[in-house]
Write a structure and sequence with these properties.
mainly alpha; 0% strand; 2 domains; 17 helices
Length: 458
């Protein structure tokens, strides 16, 4: 078995990166399709489609929080497990897996209780109206029951991809996506369950994915397995995982806060059309970021494993290859957005007025996207090397120190066109955040390589 997993330190970096990244990319595109199809079905419920879609949309901040907790445990534990696999410390890697699995279950039960008891009050706070709260609450009451499946699927799947089983990780997402696409129309239209049917389809789909993930991690194909003796929480094992995953948690959890800040400011200066344009901007950004995130997640096990194995040259080679590919992709996509923004806007709406409004907003919002390849490459490498503090600092600086204040400050400075000024907050924050990330990364990456650098023979 040890020979099989050594491919992470023996195969050519380029071949290995694409081998691991392509299934991850496919999984992310499938997941995006999953979400889009879900919304299409809900939006087409006869008579109530618009209100139902709005109600489910209000649920998104809560759903993001659930996903963020999965990332806290899974995305913190998986790179550390890879590092210890690289060190050939199999027992420690399995302790990390077992502790993370146990904690995911505990977190799931707590979240389920909170969502069942207080979801109505939370949804009203997030913007649900009297017309939409019924749909939102109905959706969340069912979704909450399946929280454990969501947590285990998202969190534990990271341990599959971290071992280099990218295709298996893709199948985890594929099972859920296909199941959801099939079950949605059956429950929504066939059984006339409206939004409750959509929620039920979602949790059943997640349950099927969960069974697949847990079965694999308990089976013989996995290099590290979930074992009963490792389920007892050990502070020295689980706390470093939580520290490492905190950056990803902050990034995901903060998205709901940022969305509220953007929408409130845009509603004040530009009204509904500005808020509608923001939906398109974030959709295009999400679409644009998928390949960057997919490639980076494909690089994570390579960097983590070889860092654990003290192979500085392969760590360096993997990072530089990832950086080059991400920069080329980001530059090409940025050029397309600048040249043909109307095409991107037209993917999400056929409303001519909204498209016309979105075109200049899209150019402003994604003005520095050509630099995103640098940001993502550095961020994932911090995580891959187990640099928890650095990941947290980068996430906090971009989201809380820069972006949220700028959403309110920039319109006060550029008061001639305050709506566009709100969109301007994004590229300004991104430019300074990327500059800060690069400066921090240069120092920390060099120090990390020195620690594992093998002395040269004279």
């Amino acid at each position: 078995m040890s020979e099989n997993k050594d491919f992470l330190e023996k195969e050519p970096i380029g071949k290995l990166l694409f081998k691991l990244a392509l299934p991850t990319l496919a999984a992310q595109f499938i997941n995006m399709l999953y979400n889009i199809v879900d919304r299409i079905y809900i939006g087409h419920i006869p008579g109530i489609g618009a209100s139902a879609l709005t109600g489910v949309g209000v649920c998104m901040p809560l759903i993001l929080i659930v996903s963020a907790f999965a990332a806290l445990v899974g995305y913190g534990g998986a790179p550390r497990a890879s590092i210890y696999m690289g060190k050939k410390e199999q027992h420690t890697a399995e302790q990390i897996l077992g502790n993370c699995f146990a904690l995911q279950i505990i977190v799931s039960l707590i979240l389920t209780a909170i969502l069942l008891k207080w979801n109505r009050g939370l949804l009203l706070a997030f913007g649900a109206s009297e017309n939409t709260i019924g749909y939102a609450s109905s959706y969340m009451n069912i979704y909450a029951i399946g929280t454990i499946f969501v947590e285990l699927t998202l969190g534990m799947n990271a341990f599959i991809t971290a071992q280099g089983f990218a295709k298996t990780g893709m199948y985890s997402v594929l099972i859920g996506a296909v199941s959801n696409i099939i079950l949605d129309p059956i429950f929504i239209f066939g059984l006339h369950m409206d939004v409750r049917g959509a929620a039920l389809a979602t949790i059943i789909s997640q349950a099927l994915s969960c069974i697949w993930v847990v079965a694999f991690l308990c089976g013989r194909k996995s290099f590290i397995r979930i074992r009963k003796e490792n389920l007892r929480l050990i502070p020295g094992i689980i706390l470093p995982c939580l520290a490492l995953g905190l950056a990803t948690f902050i990034m995901q959890a903060s998205e709901s806060v940022i969305s509220i800040c953007f929408n409130s400011s845009l509603q004040r200066y530009g009204g509904d059309i500005a808020v509608g344009a923001m939906t398109i901007l974030t959709s295009v950004m999400q679409f644009a970021m998928l390949p960057l995130q997919g490639l980076s997640q494909g690089a994570q096990p390579i960097i983590s494993y070889n860092y654990g194995a003290s192979n500085a040259e392969r760590v360096k080679a993997a990072f530089w290859l990832l950086l080059k590919i991400n920069m080329i992709y980001a530059a090409v996509l940025w050029a397309l957005v600048m040249l043909i923004p109307g095409v991107f806007a037209g993917i999400f709406t056929s409303n001519a007025e909204l498209i016309e409004f979105t075109i200049p907003a899209l150019r402003i919002y994604m003005a520095v996207m050509f630099l995103f390849g640098i940001q993502i490459s550095c961020q994932i490498t911090f995580n891959s090397l187990g640099k928890a503090l650095e990941s947290i600092i980068v996430a906090v600086v971009r989201k809380f120190v820069l972006l949220i204040p700028l959403i309110y400050i920039v319109p006060m400075i550029w008061n001639s066109e305050r709506t566009m000024a709100v969109y301007m907050a994004e590229p300004i924050a991104d430019f300074f955040a990327i500059t800060f990330t690069v400066l921090l990364f240069r120092v920390r990456f060099r120090d990390a390589l020195k620690k594992i650098q093998k002395p040269t023979r004279k």
